[in-house]
Amino acid sequence: xxxxxxxxxxxxxxxxxxxxxxxxxxxxxxxxxxxxxxxxxxxxxxxxxxxxxxxxxxxxxxxxxxxxxxxxxxxxxxxxxxxxxxxxxxxxxxxxxxxxxxxxxxxxxxxxxxxxxxxx
Amino acid sequence: xxxxxxxxxxxxxxxxxxxxxxxxxxxxxxxxxxxxxxxxxxxxxxxxxxxxxxxxxxxxxxxxxxxxxxxxxxxxxxxxxxxxxxxxxxxxxxxxxxxxxxxxxxx
Lengths: 120, 107
Description:
The structure holds 2 protein chains of 2 kinds. Helix content of chain A is 0%, strand content 50%. Chain A is mostly beta strands. In chain A, strands 2, 4, 5, 6, 9, 10 and 11 form a 7-stranded mixed β-sheet that branches. In chain A, strands 1-3-8-7 form a 4-stranded antiparallel β-sheet, with no helix packed on it. Chain A is globular. The model of chain B has no long low-confidence stretch (mean pLDDT 97). In chain B, the strands form 2 sheets. In chain B, strands 2-10-9-4-5-6 form a 6-stranded mixed β-sheet, with no helix packed on it. Chain B has a 4-stranded antiparallel β-sheet with strand order 1-3-8-7, with no helix packed on it. By secondary structure, chain B is an all-beta fold. The chains are: A mainly beta, B mainly beta.
């Protein structure tokens, strides 16, 4: 069974940048569809971005132009580059993969999450 | 974007109760509908995929039904470990929207 471990969260000032990482084991990031999902404190789940196995990428409107999803196949790692951070980007960020069920499938493997706090 | 509306937003139930949560999509998503369980401080866990298929390792008291725009998650006999928040999600189109969640609390 695959496993995902996120890191890179922390406290940032508005306007700052941060890069989140998600290291995969038991699966290859190049061979599956990888997502970022976030959850603001006390709120629900919000999809952020996806990179498909064919390298197509998509973003939620609220992060488009500020966030970039990418992967390093040699390190089996997914990234989320977050620029121009805003207060409302404060959330736990999860990486999640559509491992078994294809590009329209469920998110069947999740990491434990990493907390990003944007505050002055 | 496909909007997902869950109801109720919260419910109180007792161990042994039958619990039903509904999820409605703003337009047809065929059966690209999945259910997740989340406990405080933990990542979501997949319960049901493709509207009605039980994820491996998930107890059979969980079941899902529906197609098109209306979907249901049923817990046939609520157990102590089932008190949690449940989310539906559509993967028919991007963005992959979630419902707002249903918190199942102890009565």
